[in-house]
Specification:
The protein has 13 helices and three strands; from the N terminus they run ααααααβββααααααα. The chain has 273 residues and is mainly α. The protein folds into two domains: 8-67, no CATH class; 94-251, Intergrase catalytic core (hpI Integrase, Chain A). It is globular and about 60 Å long. The mean pLDDT is 87.
Amino acid sequence: MRLRDMAASTIRRRSTVIGWVANYLDVPLLEATPAQLRDWRASLNVAPDAVSVYVSHCSQFYRWCAREGLLDGSPAAGLPAPRRGRRLPRPIAEKDLLGALAAAPDRIRPWLVLAGWAGLRAKEIALLRRDMVLDTRCPPVILIQENATKGHRERLVPMSAFVVDELAPHLNGRGWVFHRYDGNPGPNLPSTISHLVNVHLHDCGIAASLHQLRHRFATELYKASHDIRAVQEALGHQSPKVTAGYVAYDPGVAAAAVEDIPVPARLRSVREA
């Protein structure tokens, strides 16, 4: 997984889940039977989405074992998992976002701006380099490089004048735009960005997370453009289906559209009367 440049958090999660499987089994991992793994699956007493994640990690592990010749086949093949339910977009409320921005310390304010007005992930904020901020280009953009994002999909994210102005004080040097405060070399950890922003939001009495600012950016961009492909490219998604999970539809627009659906003349006259 490291050689495939997968996220450290994903590797830790895989290791943790396989550790749970090993602790459950009465035999070594490579001696597990399909029946024993089904028993482990049946023992999971967590939410359906979590079950799906755990089963996926287990299946991927045994698939790798088979691929490496450690097993003749995967005993986890066909391991049942619940379908993951559709989750609606959860953009942070505008009032909450503006309040959090006004109260943000100098270190955290640009992170809120990059998430809420440019849709950047925590990893993309942490690994942002000065040469990736093309503020003199027309129009100005941020280049998200493949090694600084999830899925390794490079993209250009347009910057509004507001984003350019907010980032300007942080663009005087070279290398990482946001430096660590602990004296260690390298960029901030994505988990540090997420944690500090989430703590700030909660200190402001806001029950939201950094990722919900990305939902907000997607929602506002779609409302302004009505172009799901433009939103997809700005977010760096491989599929517009994923993007749809970030864009909250406007109930007011839907209500107006429903009201304009033609009705029989008699009903129209009754309503107008």
